[in-house]
Amino acid sequence: MSEGASPEPRYLSRALTWLGFNGRVLEEAQDSTLPVLERARFLGIFFSNLDEFFMIRVSGLREAVEAGVERPADGEESIAGILAQVGQRTHGLVRVGYTTYHREILPSLAAGGVHFLTEEEVAPKERAFLDRLFEREILPILTPAAVEPGLPFPHITNFALCFAVRLARVGAEERFALVQLPRQYPRWIQVGSKGGFRFALLEDVVRRRLVELFPGHEIRDLALFRVTRDADFATDDQEEEDLVEAVKNVLKRRRSGDPVRLEIESSASEEITARLTAAFQLDQGSVYRVPGPLDLKFLIELARVPSLPAPRAASWPPQPVPEIPPGEALWEAVAERDFLLFHPYETFEPVLRLLTLASQDPAVLAIKQVLYRTAPNSEVIRALESAAENGKQVTALLELQARFDEERNATWARRLEDAGVQVLYGLAGLKTHAKALLIVRRGTRGIERYAHVGTGNYNERTVLEYSDLSLLTSNEDLCADLTAFFNVVTGYSEPLPWRMIAMAPLGLRRRFLDLIHREIEKSTAEEPGMIRAKMNALVDKQIVDALYDASAAGVKVLLNVRGSCVLRPGVKGMSENIRVVSVVDRFLEHSRIFEFRNGGDTETYLGSADWMPRNLDRRVELVFPIADPLLRSRLAHILDVLLADNLKSRELRADGVLVKRPRGRRVLRAQEIFWEEARLRAEGRGEGDRSAFVPLRSAPP
Known about the structure:
Strands 14, 18, 19, 20, 21, 23, 24, 25, 26 and 27 form a 10-stranded mixed β-sheet that branches. Strands 10, 11, 12, 13, 15, 16, 17 and 22 form an 8-stranded mixed β-sheet that branches. A hairpin with a 6-residue loop joins strand 23 (593-596) and strand 24. The chain has 18 helices and 27 strands. The chain has 4 domains: 1-112, Polyphosphate kinase N-terminal domain (Methane Monooxygenase Hydroxylase, Chain G, domain 1, Up-down Bundle); 116-235 and 260-294, polyphosphate kinase like (2-Layer Sandwich); 329-490, Endonuclease, Chain A; 502-698, Endonuclease Chain A (Endonuclease, Chain A). The chain is of the alpha/beta class. It is 36% helix and 21% strand.
């Protein structure tokens, strides 16, 4: 650092490091070695991520600036400065995203037999089909909205695609109107399959016939646009008597929140752009002129269509776990030992089977479960309904405020109640984010308890797309803790001293800090301490400061952080013993693992909590230790492989930039290794030949 230069801030920006993560998602879309449908999926995920980022993070930064907040209470960088950098970087990422779409994804899809047609490319028979479709199904849905001087600007729903139209009529003043596209109609329409799959986009079908909505006028100018609104609303569940109704009110507010971003076709005239910018009260930095099509999230669903001929990634189906027996023998197996499941490499079937067996088994007395995010057609919900109908005492702790899943969860709440399930909503003012299932059964040894706890949701769809870990157990101490946990979050029970678990907000922060400080105390020059952890985000500055203290004491800290990370690694005198990597690959890394060397008596924990203030202080979370040394060894191996990945991993520099890691003599891809190991286990060949991949413990810190 030059003389007189200001020191580097102690923390990185949460928003900017998240953009670094999303830039990694975009890199996957740019990777020419991947099949085109996989690249298209990543591009859709990139734009979907940006949508949520604007709704939540950018809207929060804007509100802080408008409220006159100059800096975070514990931050060095101004909020206005961060917001400016976010805008600059986001504009750059969006440009790269659309360049990738037009120059790489579209040509590669076409080469693979998937064509998105321009107006000129639609054949006469296809045109006739689209015209009939427009007249019969689309035109009756469309409703033009006139924009009259002196009257309120028509409301445009969050994320709706909408045409802005300038109209001319002989002898009359120019008029302005809006036409919102029907959200219930498919975005892409198949028009033929000769020579491959041929699609037209909904907006192109409407654009060609739009003048028919304005008889006696001609269209002087038009442009497609899309507005993003502030969606960071919370219910006041301490004031609302009916939490389901409170959630519905939040959904209404979300659809009409303040605008935070305008996306508009790059061909739009200055007149239309200026009029919309003024109507939505946005500055120029919040306007994104893009070379269409708007809202590329449709690529995610496109990539899921199984019949498309374009190349897709090789299938990695979930593998069976050979140690887990079929049918009702599962009860006895879990009574005898713990089972660690690694999803999606290993099937979620044993969890669903345990719940289904419990719903039908006459010996089962009670089922208690936390539900945060569930699948649209949920087997879990059906099993709980069946259990209640079969006379079991069923309690579902349903989190109605799971962001963007509120509507579905409110529907499940009513349905479960109708089936006789006792539906509860947790502690006032706190989201319940824990992942837990407890089953009480009368067995040969009296009352027996079985549990499933993990890092991921009870969602059969996302369990195929997210990388998570979970535990099937009948451990008496853990099950006793879970019994007490459910009593705390469903009633007025005072928490007793836990035997094994740690719970937020009742002591989890203190537990993590104590574990870090214990590592400092036990660290010596001869045997330095070590902390290894994997999580989705690291933004809690008290935890970061404790890790800085650990680094200064010689503790090696190895972190795998998928998204936002405010810790600045590798700074001499502060964090030179800390290394941070991030893995972005086919499956979303979602598990949370915490490993502490503890002077050689290693302790390993799994749980639902990231190192974020909201997880430690404002949510109900569960973190639990792994008692079985063989399972701890397996988790250590998982951390080893993730830290050794040199293909899909990036290393975080002190300046907040994610950089590629040196390949060395071997290319190591963690997720491919995990799936191959699961396949070998399923075939009865044990854990697989780990030495074929690494002596991973020798990897540099």
